[in-house]
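Margin note from the TA: students keep mixing up input and output lines. Inputs are the sequences; the output is the structure of the whole complex. Example:
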Amino acid sequence: MIGIFASILDGILVGAVYGLAAMGLTLIWGVMNVINLSHGAIIVLGMFVVYFLTELTGISPYLGIPTGMIVGFIAGLIIYWVSVNRVIGRPILMSLLATFALNMIIIGLATAAWTTSPYNVPVALPGISVGNYTFTGTHIMAAIIAVVIAGLLYLFLHFTRPGKAIRAVASNRDAAELNGIPTRQTLSMAFGLGVALACISGALISTLFPFTVLSGEAYQLKSFVVTVLGGLGNPAGALLGGIALGIVEGLATPFTPVSWIPIIEFGLFVATLIAFPRGIFAFTRP
Amino acid sequence: MTALLEAHDLTKNFGGVQAVAELSFTVQQGEILGLIGPNGAGKSTVFNLINGVIAPDKGRIVFDGQDITGQAPYAVARHGIARAHQIMQPLLGLTVLENCMVGACFGRENMSLADAREAARQVADSVGLGARADVLAGALTTAGKKRLEMARALSAHPKLLLLDEVLAGLNPTEINLMLETIRGIRNSGITILMIEHVMRAIMNLSDRIVVLNLGRKLAEGTPREITQNPDVVKAYLGDASSLEAAGATPP
Amino acid sequence: MTTSISHDVAKAGTFKPRKGWGEEIALQVRQPFPWLIAIFTLICALAPYVLDDVSLRESLLLAAVYVTLATNLNLMIGYAGYVNFGNIVFFGVGGYIGVYMATAWHVHIVLAALAGGICVSVLAYVFGRGILRLRGAFFALATIGVNEAIQAFVVNFEPWGGATGIYLSMDAYEPLGGPMNALWLCYYLIIAVMGLSLLLSYGIKKSKFGLAIMAIGQNEDAAAVLGVPTPKYKAIVYSISGFLPAVAGALYFFKSGIIEPTSAFDLTTSIEAIVMLMLGGAGTVTGPVIGAFLYEELRGYLLFSETFSHLQLVLAGVLLLLIVLFVPGGLMGFLRQRLPFVRRWLQ
């Protein structure tokens, strides 16, 4: 019984990180109605930023997070101005393909540079023992950081000028433009922010599990699940959705083989999509 | 005269706001019935309820003896109701002819493609789009798209045609031509229910008029009765002059 | 516009000729395009045999599979406007059903492949009624979800070999007269599937059903108001677009001698099919063919070139990005816009 309970708690901790990963996706989706299919590649980018930073300088992986954020933001700006800016407002297929093309480019370059063998960021962090069950220190730390960053994002979106501009552009682009908000700059900033969040989550995930250049796809798919569970364009919902997914994984782990979890996840995903098309549609009206 | 369309007690709420409330009216076979009212009176909602875009919360719609309440738009179209939208919705990537063919193929008569092609060509000719039949709908001018909207609805050979502000945005010459067209459609045996803001036109054209205000029926009668109805004049307070102007030019 | 409109409208209202299917088909047979498809298919079928060139056969076989995938995908993306991102699921499920029936039950591969196609079509119709209620990006995501869920299921499904998949032993080819004959048979069958895909694509485009589907692709709500029974038609086209890819999947994996979850449900192949479609031009019949052949050529070149073999994915990505940003109509869209004779000859 303690085992199940602990498994669920651990699920919540990891789920917070999933939530953070999905936050970047949902922010971009909500603001400019673009599904960023390079999301997974960016998560991988975050992982490698931390890996090389710790390898080269020997600093704590957690100090790599701000670097990951900056790298992510810049990468986001580049991606936005190279491709996304031209496909906003065009048929959805175009933005899907444009961002997927970037995914191919990034993954292709990364594979050429780093091969597809597994990497691992060693972190020495003591766990917390409850009875005969130990909560991994890195999981706790990652969850705390994820929640803090989610809080900072909330403060940014609600209490700063650029944050308010992003929300204004998200709710009505034309009206925002009429009120003197430079929409394209705001959109590019939102995209940069979304990518930075993905990068941070990648940095955190690198402290939890080993990874390869191709790990991103799995986390991207999880981000979709989380985004749909949590409600679109809603960063707070993404955190809840992530935790919900973490609980599902935590609940399933003691009872089913690990290989069954994707079936549960994607079944849940498709069922949620079909069961609430109206509610989800409400966010996609132009 | 027999009733072609009967609306009984229609009610529709949008998040606590009553868009249409306990509305009943009938459209007689072969007539032109005008539906007027101030902005926000619920006219377009009535059209959406009739052709199944939204389902009523309460009430019944009977068309040609059959209950069509809550049926999907395509089912309603099959019964023989066609609609020309206020905001044009042409299928931009298809040609003018193909647009009309969709209406003909899937309207009341369920025509084969070859039949639909001929029917569509005839209708396109009749509304003055014959020369542009093979042009992509996206390439038409605004007035052209309005005509296409009309042609597409007519291609279905409907029993009842719903016209949603087809005169809006046209100049006086174009309005006169369009009035002529609408009369022609009626003379060919198609019943018409129309929403219109151009008062002179609707007073001239309609056999009877239903006035809506805040989702309820305010008055019903011949154009002459309507212009003399004190309730209507009050609802149209700002527009009283336009009502008088309409009354001054008897059909 | 003239003042005789009323008269014309009255006349339009009384129109009553009756033309049926027969005339419509007769009209199409007199068109050049169906014959072009037939000739093209025949050339593909005969070329490797006449030239006695096995490597040509292998590359044509792959190209034919790509053409089949891209052409059927075109029914959804190019005609109906629904982005089926996880389209590879048809190929994979069809492959598994076909290979399983051929190995475990010793069913003839042609029957097994047909059974795979039929099962996939039925499943697609049922699933389609659900997920086709979603529009735009939501539909695209749902198709990815379905593909991933089914892949995860197959990984756990022991009768189908779980994560390792199904291997065919040489005995499996004995009823067909040995492996050599089986390879040729599979080749001809796959070329036939390609030809049927093209005829299907053309036939739908020229039919009443196709008109409805393309109306849905343009504006689904407007199509419904015009009388197109949208939910049913969308599910039908989704179901149709699954049939031939599933048959091709069964033949392809039977010929390969192995089917495993990662290759049967590979999302990258799914997206490659989209790239081919975009490269050639979505919404046209010829586009996917040109796109598939070009892509296959290009990929082959990149794979074997010293400098680019590592950067194959990168270059494919750059290519895709350039198409999306600058030539969204693809090659056919570009040609049809500039050269009127292309519009007359190539659909």
